[in-house]
Design a protein that fits this description.
alpha/beta, two-stranded antiparallel sheet, DUF218, six-stranded parallel sheet, Cell_Envelope_Assoc, Vancomycin high temperature exclusion protein
Amino acid sequence: MGVTSGTRLRGTRLRLPTTVAGRRRAVRGVMAACVLALLPVTWVHAAGTPRVRTARDVPEAPVAMVFGAGLWGGKPSPYLAHRLDTAAGLYRAGKVRVLLVTGDNSRDDYDEPDAMRAYLTKRGVPDDRIVSDFAGFDTWDSCARAKRVFGVDRAVLVSQDFHIRRAVALCGAAGIDAYGVGAGENHDVTWLAGGAREVLAAGKAALDAVVRPSPAFLGPHEPGVERALETAGR
């Protein structure tokens, strides 16, 4: 039986083309596969890059969306803190009137939006100008819920520069007139890992943009953004 199994394994080994024409076809096939794999990344950059701005020159919008980026000991991770600092700066500069913090609260001991709210209020952003989305489980869910649940039509998005293009592209696909501001970071190991992850995430992003699935949790309309904007207008 061992001899038979070994024979079968040898028979199923990958065989490279032996002719010049066969090798050329194999090379073309590999090149075509690489091009297809890079199409989502190309789409993300084409859709997102023209709408990425600095905090100084981004157009004004009613709302800034801040995407979650993890907690450390119940408090915003350094990357999330930088996003929140950038959003607070936009608020103080009058670029936006309301902040929508969107993140994960899928379990009792993990609450990104409340941690984000606490961080912002300690830095001078009024509590009634902050709206929490507790079901922003990924970028598409955050964008789709901002539009379909919170009624956001125009927004400035805040994230790290390696993620902001995908966020802009997805919010655009969700129907939001969005510009993005990237929170500045040192290009350390975490930044490089985030950039590498974006290559893989672009495939899902392109699929989400085409299929436009419902978020993991949709729920009814929430008037939090509308009320906060009314308060801001007083």
